[in-house]
């Protein structure tokens, strides 16, 4: 617990990965996403060490994705979970082995299903029985490896907007519907579709490994009672992502090893089940920071400090009250003890990055950094108010490279 757990591993004062943040802001402008590449690589290895080589580690591309990220995953031998044709194309462009791609989504268009079949993806996760029928039709006898996504009530203790299972969630199917999906396969001869496992994703920011265990136990019980319905001896049991990370300095830190110990022990109680996980946030959130420039200051008590970004580069505070820390780069050595209401530049009262403690003499022009923005910030960025989306810079060993170029006014006009 502490700011050190929120910050990227290779943070040193005003530098990240050996690159000065002021220089990066000068070169590329602000807002600017900066990702500590070594942090990502270390984190990928830490997951693999913790879960062991028997488990499949699949990165949830939705958290943050680009070709450079896919290349890091490919080099580490990770699988990737994608939910759109765009994520699939990016994974392939980054050199991910198609057999290590899992295609998710409660909505997959016919074109996306076709794209996945042509690519030869490792798994398509069927979200409901009707989708199974659509897949049979589109595949028209071609080989497709599938899993079924279950929706089981496990009482996940997280913000309702990031809870993805239970009666209020639109994802996956009940056990009864899963049986129905399997029956649909039986009704068609020569369909070429094989069934390799079950999937569940409970929600995000779950800080009690026992929640994952409860979900996994239910998924495994379902698999055990229907072994003969699966293709092959080993059934994949995918417990999704959702491992919690610290965003602010008093957030608890749950080591990845704690989840791994609980989940691998649960699977080891069975034979011929293979554990799969799909972390997104817990791989990338703390690797990234966003740089902002303070642009205006208003009021005296809890002053408003407006920065040059906001809801368009990070909608999480407005979407689900996500909390962040902020630090001044310009006044790094001054006490951060005055509460500011840090707001964005968009025409929404909800465009607030949060209440932050900053030096009292913070003024327009100061450079500020918001840590833990690696996940679901750039990935959820929009062009609201016709702002070009901002670049992502990877830094490592004193070198900076553009992982995602920023958009230009020409891009917007086009
Ligand atoms: C199916 C699925 N898998 C994995 C994830 C990744 O979750 P997280 O980023 O919290 O690890 C999500 C997130 O929504 C998801 O929907």
Structure description:
The protein has helices spanning 3-6, 21-28, 37-51, 67-76, 85-93, 110-119, 129-139, 175-186, 209-224, 256-268, 281-284, 316-320, 409-413, and strands at 11-12, 15-16, 19-20, 32-36, 56-60, 79-82, 101-103, 123-126, 144-149, 193-199, 235-238, 273-277, 288-298, 304-307, 327-328, 338-343, 352-358, 367-371, 392-396, 399-404. With 414 residues, it is an alpha/beta fold. It folds into 2 domains: 3-35 and 285-413, Lyase, Ornithine Decarboxylase, Chain A, domain 1, CATH 2.40.37; 37-283, Alanine racemase (TIM Barrel, Alpha-Beta Barrel). The strands form 3 sheets. Strands 4, 13, 14, 15, 16, 17, 18, 19 and 20 form a 9-stranded mixed beta sheet that branches. Strands 5-6-7-8-9-10-11-12 form an 8-stranded parallel beta barrel, surrounded by 8 helices. It has a 3-stranded antiparallel beta sheet with strand order 1-2-3. Helix 6 (110-119) crosses helix 7, helix 7 (129-139) packs parallel to helix 8 and helix 9 (209-224) packs parallel to helix 10. The chain is elongated. The N and C termini lie far apart (46 Å). Bound molecules: pyridoxal-5'-phosphate (PLP). Pyridoxal-5'-phosphate binds at residues 60, 62-63, 81, 104, 164, 201, 204, 240-243, 278-282.
């Amino acid at each position: 617990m502490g700011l050190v757990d929120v910050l990227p591993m290779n943070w040193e004062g005003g530098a990240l990965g050996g690159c000065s943040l002021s220089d990066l802001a000068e070169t590329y402008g602000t807002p600017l996403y900066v990702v500590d590449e070594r942090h990502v690589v270390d984190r990928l290895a830490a997951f693999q060490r913790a879960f062991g080589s028997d488990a499949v580690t699949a990165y949830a591309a939705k958290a943050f994705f680009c070709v450079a990220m896919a290349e890091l995953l490919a080099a580490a031998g990770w699988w990737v979970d994608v939910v759109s044709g765009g994520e699939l194309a990016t994974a392939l462009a980054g050199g991910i082995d198609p057999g290590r791609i899992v295609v998710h989504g409660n909505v997959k268009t016919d074109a996306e299903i076709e794209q996945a079949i042509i690519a030869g993806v490792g798994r398509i996760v069927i979200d409901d029985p009707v989708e199974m029928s659509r897949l049979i039709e589109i595949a028209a006898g071609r080989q497709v490896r599938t899993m079924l996504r279950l929706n089981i009530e496990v009482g996940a203790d997280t913000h309702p907007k990031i809870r993805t299972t239970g009666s209020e969630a639109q994802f996956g199917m009940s056990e009864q519907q899963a049986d129905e999906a399997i029956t649909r396969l039986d009704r068609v001869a020569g369909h070429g579709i094989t069934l390799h496992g079950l999937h569940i994703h409970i929600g995000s920011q779950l800080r009690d490994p026992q929640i994952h265990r409860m979900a996994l136990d239910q998924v495994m019980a379902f698999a055990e009672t229907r072994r003969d319905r699966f293709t092959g001896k080993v059934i994949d049991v995918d417990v999704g992502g959702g491992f919690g990370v610290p965003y602010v300095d008093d957030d608890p830190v749950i080591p990845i090893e704690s989840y791994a110990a609980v989940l691998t022990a649960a699977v080891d109680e069975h034979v011929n089940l293979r554990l799969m996980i799909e972390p997104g946030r817990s791989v990338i959130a703390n690797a990234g920071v966003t740089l902002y420039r303070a642009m205006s200051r208003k009021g005296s008590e809890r002053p408003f400090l407006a920065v040059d970004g906001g809801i368009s580069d990070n909608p999480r505070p407005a979407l689900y009250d996500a909390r962040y820390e902020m630090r001044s780069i310009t006044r790094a050595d001054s006490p951060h003890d005055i509460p500011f209401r840090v707001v964005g530049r968009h025409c929404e009262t909800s465009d607030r990055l949060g209440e932050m403690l900053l030096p009292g003499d913070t003024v327009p022009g100061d450079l500020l950094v918001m840590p833990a923005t690696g996940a679901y910030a750039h990935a959820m960025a929009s062009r609201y108010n016709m702002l070009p989306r901002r670049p992502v810079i990877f830094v490592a060993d004193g070198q900076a490279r553009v992982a995602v170029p920023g958009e230009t006014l020409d891009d917007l006009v086009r």
